[in-house]
UniProtKB/TrEMBL annotation:
GO terms for biological process: glycerol catabolic process; glycerol-3-phosphate biosynthetic process; triglyceride metabolic process. It comes from the Eukaryota. InterPro entries: ATPase_NBD, Carb_kinase_FGGY, Carb_kinase_FGGY_CS, FGGY_C, FGGY_N, GK1-3_metazoan-type, Glycerol_kin. It catalyses: glycerol + ATP = sn-glycerol 3-phosphate + ADP + H(+). Pathway: Polyol metabolism; glycerol degradation via glycerol kinase pathway; sn-glycerol 3-phosphate from glycerol: step 1/1. The keyword Kinase applies. It comes from Lupinus albus. Belongs to the FGGY kinase family. Residues 8-258 form the Carbohydrate kinase FGGY N-terminal domain. This is glycerol kinase. CDD domains: ASKHA_NBD_FGGY_GK1-3-like (cd07792).
Length: 513
């Protein structure tokens, strides 16, 4: 059977849309479909999704992609899944009904719980870092689960009756895909589990002491598996019934695999947020500069675990969406590049998109968005450029922290791999190269998240080998490289001004009307 006769499917469930992509045996995408779903904002700082709408979006994407003239049914060897991480839900084991909307990763409703735990626990904000690599933050699933347990009667009752199942979106979808109430599998993978604050990084299992301290019952948690193994087969009623689900990774870990990041290599994914991961190999590196220690991937039951340092930026592309949907400055996201190109600089304007606080490396839940340096000279083009610069500044903050944690990397040897929808913006990529002072490399296929899920599934069923996935010639083929052109003196001044702007966003969460 030739490469063209073998197919792998990838479900890519993101923060605002779901995609299903079909790859042939050479890892070339041959068909896809994408569906957007609803974002709910019940209160300021709250963000929710309807879990059933997410399931329906997967059904629509799969059916549409497989019906678009691609005769892949018989030779579809496996399905890989990648998903928005940390987003949390609890559902009924007996009925399959969600007991509340999914609480999205960027939701900030748990700030009060975080503050309470920091005061109660002996280690404060860093109390669980030794076991899970993560600080206490509204970002992570454990805090969202605590909120559900404390505030939703249906969740309390289901836990009491031992009818509750907890999961992130990967767990929810795998349970649905493998049968739901009729024998659905309750599992998660090491990368998603590493983002809950509940998994021990060394044992790759739920940490008993953490569960005890937080009062979370172990029986509601899913089984943890590797990123590349046959988890189970798709149940009847789906277009690809009987096909094995053989790969599962959180979206940023999937992008690392799709970018074929070896030890010492970093990637930045630009989506709703921006997520920068540096592969540290089999070494668990503790950050002293505001980064997270996490799992990169584990490509098989018996495979070694690769770890990573991560910096998570809450608002990146979402700032462009805000300009479009809330401010009305642009009518489509792609217009921002043309608008920003009307000026040569942001004219002294700095935009800090701390809509729900700041993530790495600042970790300021009291921060809120600011736009400073505005004068009568300022136009919407300056603001548009400042928004693009804010994305690059935030990524650069994380990269600086990574270099401090890992040791200085010579710029001549260092390059940043980028992916995600926003990377089609050439101006943004050039700004990133200028602020980083190092080359930025954009692959020909920027949708590396889905590719990573496909790689994991294909690896598990023998379609690909690791040597092929990590082949440097393959991953550099047809890539675009952006080289820095900004003078070092200018770059240093801009970074200093940006840091001043960031401090201006602090202590604004309690502002009232």
């Amino acid at each position: 059977m030739s490469e063209e006769d073998v197919f792998i499917g990838a479900i890519d469930q993101g923060t605002s849309s779901t995609r299903f992509i079909i790859y042939d045996g050479s890892a070339k995408p041959i068909g896809s479909h994408q569906v957007e779903f609803t974002q709910f904002y019940p209160q300021a700082g709250w963000v929710e999704h309807d879990p059933m709408e997410i399931v329906e979006s997967v059904k629509v994407c799969v059916a549409k992609a497989m019906a678009d003239g691609f005769n892949v049914d018989k030779n579809l060897k496996a399905i890989g899944l990648t998903n928005q991480r940390e987003t949390t839900l609890v559902w009924s084991k007996s009925t399959g009904a969600p007991l509340y909307n999914a609480i999205v990763w960027m939701d900030a409703r748990t700030t009060a719980i975080c503050s309470r735990l920091e005061k109660e626990l002996s280690g404060g904000k860093s109390h669980f870092v030794e076991s899970c690599g993560l600080p206490i933050s509204s970002y992570f699933s454990a805090l969202k689960l605590l909120w559900l347990m404390e505030n939703v009667d249906a969740v309390k009752e289901a836990i009491k009756k031992k009818d509750a199942l907890f999961g992130t979106i990967d767990t929810w979808l795998i349970w649905q895909l493998t049968g739901g109430v009729n024998g659905g599998l309750h599992v998660t993978d090491v990368s998603n589990a590493s983002r809950t604050m509940l998994m021990n990084l060394k044992t790759l299992d739920w940490d008993a002491s953490t569960l005890k301290e937080l009062g979370i019952p172990a029986e509601i948690l899913p089984k943890i598996v590797s990123n590349a193994e046959v988890i189970g087969n798709v149940a009847a009623g789906w277009p690809f019934a009987g096909v094995p689900i053989a790969g599962c990774l959180g979206d940023q870990h999937a992008a690392m695999l799709g970018q074929a990041c070896n030890k010492g290599e970093a990637k930045s994914t630009y989506g709703t947020g921006a997520f920068i991961l540096l592969n540290t190999g089999d070494e668990i590196v503790k950050s002293n500069h505001g980064l997270l220690t996490t799992v990169a991937f584990k490509l098989g039951k018996e495979a070694k675990t690769s770890y990573a340092l991560e910096g998570s930026v809450a608002i990146a592309g979402a700032a462009v969406q805000w300009l479009r949907d809330s401010v009305g400055m642009i009518s489509s996201s792609k217009e921002i590049e043309e608008l920003a190109l009307q000026v040569e600089s942001a004219g002294g304007v700095y935009f800090v998109p701390a809509f729900n606080g700041l993530f790495a490396p600042w970790w300021r839940e009291d921060a809120r968005g600011v736009c400073i340096g505005i004068t009568r000279f300022t136009t919407k083009a300056h603001i548009a450029r400042a928004v693009l610069e804010s994305m690059a500044f935030q990524v650069n903050d994380v990269l600086d922290s990574m270099q401090k944690d890992m040791g200085k990397v010579e710029s001549s040897d260092y390059l940043l791999r980028v992916d995600g929808g926003a990377t089609v913006n050439n101006l943004l990529m050039q700004i990133q190269a200028d602020l980083t002072g190092s080359p930025v490399i954009r692959p020909a296929d920027i949708e590396t998240t889905a590719l990573g899920a496909a790689f994991a599934a294909g690896l598990a069923v023998g379609v690909w080998k690791e040597e092929y996935i990590f082949d440097s010639k393959v991953k550099m083929k047809d890539a675009t490289v952006f080289h820095p052109v900004m003078a070092e003196e200018v770059r240093a001044k801009k970074m200093n001004s940006w840091c001043k702007a960031v401090t201006r966003s602090y202590d604004l969460a309690d502002l009232t009307l």
